[in-house]
Amino acid sequence: MNEPARETSDAAEDTSTRHRILAATAEVLGRSGQTKLSLSEVALQAGVSRPTLYRWFASKKELLDAFGIYEREMFETGIAKATAGLRGNDRVDAAMRFIVEYQQSYSGVRLVDIEPEVVIGRLAHIIPTMRTQLEKLLPGPNGAVKAATAIRVAVSHYIVRSDDDDQFLAQLRHAVGVRNS
User: Which InterPro entries does the entry mention (predicted)?
Assistant: First the structure.
């Protein structure tokens, strides 16, 4: 009878371990970049042994692929939480505020300083995904244009970081046609 509870506990531990490894990957990438990413350094940052890391991710490529999915899921989950229960302009404004907060708090954001060519290459995959996510919040005939503009403003702030969060938010709000709340 205790077996199912143990299986649930093991699954939770596995999810936690995997999450710690992926979160550690963000930290290490922010310091070293993708080219110099060391699996040993990721294991140390995550507080796991190298064999544990290799149990989850057999190679650097496998870890980086999983990390890309992890990043996308973090963004999608965050924007969903930020906009939950809201409607209309309040929902859109919450999404814009989330984008600013996410970008300013996300440790991997400085990867662009370390390996700009890697980041620029990944943007071709990231921009359409982010735009599609934002388009869902922007109904109407200009929704696609507003979403594309907001994402490009966000990417611009990602590449050339500004310390002025209020200006960044004002630009995003302007792009999507939302007045200051």
Answer: Homeodomain-like_sf, HTH-type_TetR-like_transc_reg, HTH_TetR
